Amino acid sequence: MERSLHFMAFAMTIMTLATVTYPQESYAMKQKPAMSREGPAHSRMAMAGMPRFVLTVSPKSGDYEINAECIDTPCDDRLQEPNGDLTYHWGIKYPNEEIRWIETNVPKLTVQSQSRDEKIVVFLEITDANGNKSELQHIEIHSPDVYLAENQNLYIDANGQLYKANKQRYSYSYARLHLTYREGLPEKYKGREWMPTTATILKPFSSSSQVEARDGGPLIKDILPTSELDHIKNNSEDGQVYRYVLILLNYKSKAIQFIPITFTYKTNIQQ
Prior knowledge:
- The protein is mainly beta and 271 residues long.
- It has 2 domains: 32-140, Immunoglobulin-like (Sandwich); 147-266, Immunoglobulin-like.
- It has 2 helices and 18 strands.
- The strands form 5 sheets. It has a 7-stranded mixed beta sheet. Strands 6-5-8-9 form a 4-stranded antiparallel beta sheet, with no helix packed on it. It has a 3-stranded antiparallel beta sheet with strand order 3-4-7, with no helix packed on it.
- Strand 5 (86-93) and strand 6 form a beta hairpin.
- The chain is globular and about 55 Å long.
- The model is unreliable at 1-48 (pLDDT under 50).
């Protein structure tokens, strides 16, 4: 029997200019109506302990690897280990075919590409050992990465100093997530509807926020305000990673691309 799909795509990775909804609360959220692969559930889901995940996709040997990355802090590592507390329910939809569902105990899946131009949609619903369910989310694999991002992975030391991925000092006042067109991008993706004007930030320990994304990309201080910088500086263990997600939006507030950003705390940046 064909399943009825009702979903909230709060964590789609790369889309074709779709409107996005997403959780406004982080880890240990309040109760909300549950959404499932069979449609809206009548009971209410206890979200405490159910972290948020963001889907990412990357090419792999002619196929695609889909990863579900936890963005909440703290995110219990054991939940993402094989035979852990979470079960991942993947739905794969090829053109003119019914959805095929697969269960795994790891947060990744390899999807075979049958044609370079086909549109493949992958759905994900996560359940825990207590029967709690995440909202059903999805990504469309055929949509291109329009932008390359520079300064996606940054470090913060015990003094609150910002560093680039190569451990070079980076001024917090002027640091920017630089956005440039991907090489060889077709001209149709350089039109106004693919140009970011603002961005929504999904954060690990606070509600989401919206920032300006013009002029080559948003400033890091807008993505990570001083209050959150101080929180990381004063409350982190050495090597602790904080994952943010930047959702680029066009002038109609429709999503263009999702870009993950990490901030890693290091007591001693030279180690």
